[in-house]
Amino acid sequence: MAGAKSCSAKLIQASNAGNPASIITQELKITSLTFHPDGGTGKRTLRGTDDDAGVDEIDERGDGEDNAGEDKSGEDEDEPAPRRRQVPSDDESNDEDEDEPASRRRKVGKRGQERLAERPMWKTMAPPDDEPSDDGDSGGGAIEEDEDPYSGFADADYVAPGPNMRMIHISEQPQLLQRIIKAAIRKAIGDVIFDTAYRSVDEQVKYNRKTLRSCARKFGANAYAHRFRVDHAFGKVTGRVLNGRVSKYRGDIKKVAMAKVEGFYKLLEGPDCRDVIEHLRSKKRYIYPVNAEGDLQPTKPFFHLAMISTLREAFFTGSRGSFAERYQDRFVSSITDGPRKQERELPAAMVAMAATSIASSLDDYSTGVRRKTEFNADLYEDVYRSHMAMLATICENSPNAYHRLMADLYNCTSSISTHLVTTTTSNDDMADMDV
């Protein structure tokens, strides 16, 4: 049972990623509020809690007749009732002439001016409405009060996108920035393969900024790391490069799956094809292999020949080096003790991505005639998360069965043999899976 808790916890967390409830809203705390006896409000100070921003103080004085109390000093019953007037601040005289113009009465006093002069002359760039203000990375440290967040940009320059362009060109950027972006792309693709293929918009923005800053620091590019932290526009436009590569990765897996489904599922265009697709998509039958008699083998999920072939071609082959070669150190075991901790497994995110691509490719035939469907998060993120949840359930119910499943998938897809069979999962643990 070693590693059971960590295995299921990671998979459940990955399958639930993107939940809007995980978004943390910024709080504002009222630190000082002074009320006058007549109900008027004096000075209020609001302090933000954003670690990246300096503390901004907002002084609100009573305005006109709504918030001002009456000055009753020297009041005589023979004299007409005095006019309502503004409550003076602590540093202004209480003997102020009532006939004084309103603009004079509302003027900030000497103490207020001194307080304004002591404020820092900068503040963190406010992010756009669709972007969170903090990426959750505390590794960069807080900005000192006398530190200018916009300093050092001369050493962190970049070439902005051209007219009507949303994305920068890597080849046009300074050499150091090119290295940072390429390193961030490599990490982003690895995390998509081994952690999760889909994040919410807010999570992706945070992830991009954190990854770019981390890569900048690894290259000793502190000026760029500093700019990624304080210049949200720069982080956003650079992060679009990572988004584009992640989207391309998902599209490439779908292209591989598209070439597999027609032959492996024996699809023929026509009226009967719709019924075949509906049958395969029901209860995820498309992920299970069939025996010689055509019967489904429910104890071997994700071992359909279309799955094996898609995983093999998408991740273990490539003329310029495969994903498996590039990230070979990230193939590990979910078992942490004993000899089986040396047996490599396929990551759940990889298996779920291949299964989702096959589901989308089958949907191309849903009308009876092959028509390419859109393969985007809005349509298929739920399919992906259902596969992740299924794997998490297997891991939670039987860690040994989960390990055997994923280790056998690794051995089958990484084998140099071109003869693909589905008899490698004869281990008794597989029969105990409740799927």
Structural write-up:
The chain is mainly alpha-helical. Among the domains are: 5-14 and 249-431, no CATH class; 28-118, no CATH class. The protein has 15 helices and 2 strands. The protein has helices at 4-15, 64-67, 102-105, 110-118, 175-194, 201-218, 222-230, 232-264, 271-281, 305-316, 323-326, 348-363, 377-397, 399-414, 428-431, and strands spanning 28-35, 41-48. Strands 1-2 form a two-stranded antiparallel sheet. The longest helix is centred in the middle third of the chain and has 33 residues, at 232-264. Residues 20-82, 84-105, 121-148 and 417-435 have low confidence and may be disordered.
Number of strand elements:
2
- Spatially, the strands of the biggest sheet line up as 1-2
Shape: globular
Share of β-strand residues = under 5%
Structural Rg: 31 Å
Runs in which pLDDT lies below 50 for 5 or more consecutive residues are 20-82, 84-105, 121-148, 417-435
The end-to-end span amounts to 19 Å
Q: Overall mean pLDDT score?
A: 75
Task: State the oligomer.
Answer: single chain
Main β sheet profile: 2 strands, antiparallel
Individual helix count: 15
* Element string (H = helix, E = strand): HEEHHHHHHHHHHHHHH
Helix content estimate: 40-55%
| Structural class by sheet pairing and helices | mainly alpha
